[in-house]
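JOB MANIFEST
job_type = single_chain_structure
chain_count = 1
residues = 298
[input]
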Amino acid sequence: AAIVGAAGLLPTLAAAKTGKRILLANKEALVMSGALLMREVQENNAVLLPVDSEHNAIWQCMPVGESQQYQFDNKGIRRIILTASGGPFRDWEIADLEAVTPEQAVAHPNWSMGQKISVDSATMMNKGLEVIEAHWLFGMPSNKIEVVLHRQSIIHSMVDYMDGSVLAQMGNPDMRTPIANTLAWPERIDSGVAPLDLVKAGRLDFAIADFKRFPCLALAYKALNIGGTSTAILNAANEVAVEAFLQQQIKFTDIARVIADVLESIPATSADSLEQILSADKLAREAAQKQTKILCNH
């Protein structure tokens, strides 16, 4: 399931309802309908395997139950640590981000991705969506999911256990690794990825993910804590704002402004049904389009 954006929601839900083995690369299916999708997976005995490099790393570092689903309750897990490269602007002055161009935003330092996902990585909304995904995939509350900057993208994520152990999944930044891992699971196959050379890598650096530099990350945590349809609203507003930025209608820093405005203007409701989720998505897109037009005219 690798369709980018909200378009990936319906086919992923359909696969879960028919009990398929789902290799999930699409973020938005869980971001928009986490409770609904996980319920369909459980009720229909589907198997949900994360392809996203961060969630695949967490999955590899966690105990898996005999049912082939996640059985993490009372397993002594203290927190999940998601790593993020920080994108192309991690060393820029915050004041200079107003002038970022679409060409600069899609030039990721470590990964080769599509335009939308590259912009999400630059704003760190990509990591915010992954926080929401991790909450649903692994049953962890937001205060037990942390994000750290790791510019080398060698450690793909970590699990911190109460006994002091921290398990990390490491490898070269190449999506063939998590894809091969899920395709062959529970076996291991040759993915074609070069072996990791730690001596050549030389060092592993970590830093705090600053909410002032990355307001989209803060907005994702906010939406997750509000609950209900708020994450669907967040996602819809982000998709509209990113597209407007790519079309040079708004500034890079306006992306977070649009999302914040839409989150404030549309009250969250329960997300128990697909109808509620799609309704929130539609309202958020309309509100975001209005906001981008206002910013464009200014």
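[summary]
The mean pLDDT is 92.
Residues 274-297 form the longest helix (24 residues).
exit_status = 0
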